[in-house]
Amino acid sequence: MKHFFKVFFIALLCFGLMIGAGTYTYIKFFDPNSIKNYTDDPVNIDPLDIDSEEKNKEKTPLEEAIEDSKRINILLLGLEDVRTDTIMVVSFDRKTTETNIISVPRDTYFHRAGHDNLGAKKINAVYCDSGAAGVKAAVENVLKIPIHNYVTVDYDGVRGAVDVIGGVEVDVPFHMYYKDPYDDPPLFINIPKGKQVLDGDKAIQYLRFRHNNDLTVGYPDGDIGRIKAQQEFIKSAISKTMGFKLVSVAKKVFPYVKTDFTLPDILLLVSDALSFSTDNLTMEVLPGRGKYIDEISFYVHDPEKVNKLVYDLYDVEYE
Question: What's the pTM value of the predicted model, to 2 decimals?
């Protein structure tokens, strides 16, 4: 049982536990000879619907690499009420223990048929209608790689985990101050600038901050800056937790976690995950750019750069 908790929590941390965020789904591969803009592709909530022509076509080098790979891709969702405040894909290579975390901005544009409200075309709105399975399908559609499992964590789980390990050290880049009395519960952020150890409550404030009320203080690159700050927080949290009593932390977080991992799934990772090192951890943001559509701010991903990222992930030469 000790190994179970250790592996479960290592996986949970590596898959982005501290950012407020088993059945395998089908593998939907990308054809590099037909690059197009997938931004306007509707989400396919039923990923098992593959036509016979696609099944029988000759595999591309990337398809073969994915099929032969020991990588397992996990979707981490940090929940804020009915929306996903944080979306990350963690790709863990069971053979090399190499771990890659790809952050997907919550404002990523994602067209869904039947949703005329422009606000519903942000990827963080998918969870409200379709749950974790819908977000898995949406992220597969964007990245063109299989998402095998998901893990969801809410703010209470993050708060509890941070307190159990005695806080997480971060270097706050500016005075974070923000009030939203209409949030439920009301949100109040007040963290001074400088290096400090954040407890559970302050950690949630830090992870949620984007800008102050009058927009004069905030990350120069908007939500991308917030994501980078979250990633640095993860590294600091993982480094501290790896030397802590993982069983205690896992027990604290477990009630706030939902996942489609089964116990056999987790046990399969035991021998591989135990040799994990933060030296093998890299973090990236989904390639793209910010864009206003009808006066609403979106993040539009770059399909070609995303494809190159995926090719590099599976060690396939990009042409």
Answer: 0.71
